[in-house]
Design brief:
The chain is of the alpha/beta class. The protein has ten helices and eight strands. Strands 1, 2, 3, 4, 5, 6, 7 and 8 form an eight-stranded mixed beta sheet that branches. α8 links the parallel β4 (152-156) and β5. α1 packs across α2 (31-43), α2 runs antiparallel to α9 and α3 packs parallel to α4. The N and C termini lie far apart (45 Å). The mean pLDDT is 92.
Length: 268
């Protein structure tokens, strides 16, 4: 991306979506995004691999859900389009699957709408995670998705940008409310592992420059709470690389390593 920006976008303020794009090797980012991302990489040198792990978890989770018969997907906090998006993975085995991407980053919306202009099964909606009731009642979402049928709610690497623990839990609970039995929640979330408090604070400082304001890693117990009342699919709550990996090496999941926790749960 050149350093010129669409009207209404300040390229001097880093965006978490564009930082993520930079981690994945994308070009849709500004100098401010790259600078903030490089600061974070000083604290978490493995962040590029963590971002790729998140994408691989997305692919495996969506494949699993389509195999289970899910034909409706709501992806909240979509991020910039990259290789192997939800609609691409789902449509490989379920070309009739309906997908709604929901985000409030202007650059994300511009790119996603351009990419999906000729894809009637997939739409892009401008919505804010921090307004869960309005998000789930959005008329475009309701016109595209039938909540009387099972739905997969996807929240990959997004809730950790909600700084307050109670608010984060409330948001997830409210987003789950419309889901009927047979629906699923798939999530990944930042996890500090064995990082020290000083390292965590240093990493948060890099994200404090963004419009989102911060990044809050949460522990296994907090992440488990988002799935209260759901039936977790095997292997339960694990680091993202350990959720049904394509190649199994026999190692136990490494919870000491900073990265992302991951899980998929069924509404029962």
């Amino acid at each position: 991306m050149t350093e010129s920006a669409p009207t209404g976008i300040d390229p001097t303020i880093p965006s978490v979506a564009r930082m993520y794009d930079y981690y994945l090797g994308g070009k849709d980012n500004f100098a401010s995004d790259r600078a903030a991302a490089e600061e974070f990489m000083k604290v978490v040198p493995t962040i590029r691999e963590i971002a790729r792990e998140n994408r691989r978890f997305l692919i495996r989770a969506v494949r699993t859900l389509t195999d289970l018969g899910i034909r409706q997907f709501v992806d909240i906090g979509t991020g910039l389009p990259t290789q192997r998006n939800v609609h691409e993975v789902a449509h490989e085995t379920a070309p009739d699957a309906k997908i709604v991407y929901m985000d409030n980053d202007p650059i994300v919306l511009i790119h996603a709408r351009a990419l999906l202009a000729d894809n009637p099964e997939t739409i892009v909606v401008d919505a804010d995670l921090r307004q869960p009731k309005a998000l789930m009642e959005h008329p475009e979402l309701r016109a595209h998705i039938d909540f009387d049928r099972p739905v997969a709610l996807l929240m990959f690497a997004i809730v950790h940008f909600v700084p307050d623990d109670a608010e984060a839990a409330d948001i997830v609970a409210r987003l789950r409310e419309p889901l009927r039995p047979g629906s699923y929640l798939a999530m990944s979330h930042g996890y500090a592992g064995s990082m020290t408090r000083e390292q965590i604070h240093a990493g948060q400082a890099a994200y404090r420059m963004t419009a989102s304001g911060t990044l809050i890693p949460r522990d296994v117990e907090q992440f488990t709470g988002y799935f209260d009342g759901l039936r977790l699919l095997s292997p339960g709550i694990v680091p993202a690389p350990a959720w049904r990996p394509d190649i199994v090496f026999g190692d136990e999941p490494d919870f000491s390593r900073p990265g992302l926790l991951a899980a998929v749960g069924e509404v029962v």
